[in-house]
Design brief:
The protein is an alpha+beta fold and 330 residues long. The protein folds into 2 domains: 4-193, Fructose-1,6-Bisphosphatase, subunit A, domain 1 (Fructose-1,6-Bisphosphatase, Chain A, domain 1, 2-Layer Sandwich), CATH 3.30.540.10; 204-329, D-Maltodextrin-Binding Protein, domain 2. The chain is built from 7 helices and 15 strands. Strands 4-3-5-6-7-8-9-10 form an 8-stranded mixed sheet, with helices on both faces. A 5-stranded mixed sheet has the order 12-11-13-15-14, with helices on both faces. The longest helix is centred in the N-terminal third of the chain and has 23 residues, at 16-38. Bound molecules: 2,5-anhydro-1,6-di-O-phosphono-D-glucitol and manganese (II) ion (MN) (2 copies). One manganese (II) ion (MN) binds at residues 112, 115, 243, 275.
Length: 330
């Protein structure tokens, strides 16, 4: 059985040593989070709010803060990342090289350390989402915001960790999507999902239908299309409220995820750089499609670190179908 490390060595097209260092940081932080999540019911340290309102204006949970700090510390210690942008930090964070002759720190990481925060306290799947680029500015210069505001199509690595009934790390470097399940007794991620693809037959739609009254006509008509008794429909509705969990299930079972703009979130709710771009990269690698309703997510030119976008992601035919509804009805 392949471990994640062995698989990276045999399958990476980028610098293997750098990728191994990167994954080493990601694995370390995710194992620390896995451990905390698994004892969440037993300790006040993890359940509840931290008392801080984050840059999104949302209540930060204790685990949001724990996960953010776990990833920053882990990236700092591995000497391969030069800058991090996190949902939990208003500005980007610069990581100084420890010594001048150290390994070239050229990677930029954008991260949602804890996705699905509202599910932490109720024992439902949560996740981490990460996206990696190569810095644009010369290595001897200071980082600039442009190093972080790169289009999604420039990603060299994207992935997520789902802390569910088991903890699974899923990633792509542009060579398929592969999943590795943590064996907690050994502390090792083993290859469990090789070359994931959306199945041919779709059966699920995932959208927060509680917002129905706030949706546009195109979205409402698409929901009715999913519910019609025709061809292989109706589809079943599944919505966890953790993007990672909803995406993971949809990629394995065949489903579309939709977070459109609403009256409350006129630009959409999900964040382009550390939620939608990495998930779109994975969706395309899994034979699917990701769109804001009109254009490809990965071609959007970012202008702000915490920018939001409407997000539609899933099997190609179904995403295109929704785009048609949006063009004709809006
Ligand atoms: P986060 O916990 O990182 O802020 O992300 C929450 C996101 C996403 O995971 C999920 O799909 C969506 O918010 C759910 O939003 P609603 O509760 O509005 O449906
Ligand atoms: Mn999130
Ligand atoms: Mn989050």
């Amino acid at each position: 059985m392949y471990t994640l490390g062995e698989f990276v060595i045999e399958n990476s097209s980028h610098s293997t040593e750098a990728l191994l260092r990167l994954f080493s940081s990601i694995k370390l932080a995710s194992k620390a989070i896995h451990k905390e999540v698994n004892k969440a019911g037993l300790t006040e340290k993890i359940i509840g709010n931290s008392g801080i309102t984050n840059v999104q204006g949302e209540n930060q949970k204790k685990l949001d803060d724990f996960a953010h700090r776990a990833f920053i510390e882990s990236f700092k210690s591995r000497n391969v990342v030069c800058g991090i942008a996190s949902e939990e930090s208003e500005n980007f964070i610069v990581i100084q090289k420890k010594q001048e002759n150290d390994f070239k720190n050229q990677y930029i990481v954008l991260i949602d350390p804890l996705d699905g925060s509202s599910n932490i306290d109720v024992n439902v799947s949560i996740g981490t989402i990460f996206s990696v680029y190569i810095r644009k500015s010369p290595i001897q210069m200071n980082l600039t915001i442009e190093d972080f505001l790169q289009k999604g199509n420039q990603q060299i690595l994207a992935g997520y960790i789902i802390y569910g009934s088991s903890t699974i790390l899923v990633y792509s470097t542009g060579n398929g999507v592969h999943g590795f399940t943590l064996d907690p007794s050994v502390g090792t991620f083993y290859l469990s999902h090789y070359n994931l693809h959306f199945p041919k037959k779709e059966k699920i739609y995932s959208i927060n239908e509680g917002n129905y009254a706030k949706f546009s006509d195109g979205i409402r008509k698409f929901i009715r299309y999913c519910q019609e008794k025709k061809e292989n429909r109706p589809y079943t509705a599944r919505y966890i409220g953790s993007l990672v969990g909803d995406f993971h299930r949809n990629m394995i079972q065949g489903g579309i995820y939709i977070y459109p703009k609403t009256a409350s979130y006129p630009e959409g709710k999900l964040r382009l750089l550390y939620e939608c771009n990495p998930m779109s990269f994975l969706a395309e690698q899994a034979g699917g499609k990701a769109s804001d309703g009109k254009k490809r997510i990965l071609d959007i030119e970012p202008t702000r670190l915490h920018q939001r976008t409407p997000f539609i992601c899933g099997p190609t035919g179904l995403v295109s179908k929704l785009e048609e509804f949006m063009i004709y009805c809006e």
